[in-house]
């Protein structure tokens, strides 16, 4: 069992569906985030999750507003997930669903 768990962590096991759903909810609950365009997660250890996401923001927002939106979204994700998180959010203009 230990070997199987270690192997899955070494090859980059993603978060569970429940955790991914909680992250997505936390991101879109932040005012200024229109939607999650795409997201990837990977466990760095059993208690540490790497999250990378492209989020749609309002194209008319200033850089300062977008930065505040990202900070707020990161706080919401950390509150929603009971793991240590390294979070990278890339803001983009929503060009429609891909």
Write up what this structure looks like.
The protein has 98 residues and is an alpha+beta fold. The protein is 41% helix and 34% strand. The chain has three helices and three strands, in the order ααββαβ. Strands 1-2-3 form a three-stranded mixed β-sheet, covered by helices on one side. α2 packs antiparallel against α3. It is elongated, with a radius of gyration of 15 Å. The relative contact order is 0.21. The mean pLDDT is 90.
Question: How do the strands and helices of this protein lay out in sequence?
Answer:
Elements: H1 2-10, H2 17-29, E1 33-45, E2 48-57, H3 63-80, E3 84-93
Parallel strand pairs: 2-3
Antiparallel strand pairs: 1-2
Helix pairs in contact: 2-3
Helix content: 40-55%
Sheet with the most strands, sense and barrel status: 3 strands, mixed
Question: What is the percentage of strand-forming residues?
Answer: 25-35%
The overall strand count is 3
Mean pLDDT: 90
Helix/strand-derived category reads alpha+beta
Principal-axis shape = elongated
Report, as a whole number of angstroms, the end-to-end distance. 39 Å
Number of continuous helical runs: 3
Stretches with pLDDT under 50, minimum 5 residues: none
Radius of gyration: 15 Å
Oligomer state of the chains in this structure: single chain
Spell the H/E element sequence: HHEEHE
**Arrangement of strands in the largest sheet:** 1-2-3
């Amino acid at each position: 069992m230990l070997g199987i768990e270690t192997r899955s962590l070494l090859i980059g096991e993603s978060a569970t569906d429940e955790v991914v759903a909680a992250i997505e909810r936390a991101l879109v609950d932040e005012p200024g985030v229109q939607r999650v365009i795409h997201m990837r997660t990977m466990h760095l250890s059993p208690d540490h999750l790497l999250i990378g996401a492209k989020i749609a923001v309002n194209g008319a927002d200033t850089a300062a507003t977008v930065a505040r939106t990202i900070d707020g979204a990161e706080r919401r994700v950390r509150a929603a997930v009971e793991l240590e998180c390294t979070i990278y959010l890339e803001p983009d203009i929503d060009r429609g669903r891909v």
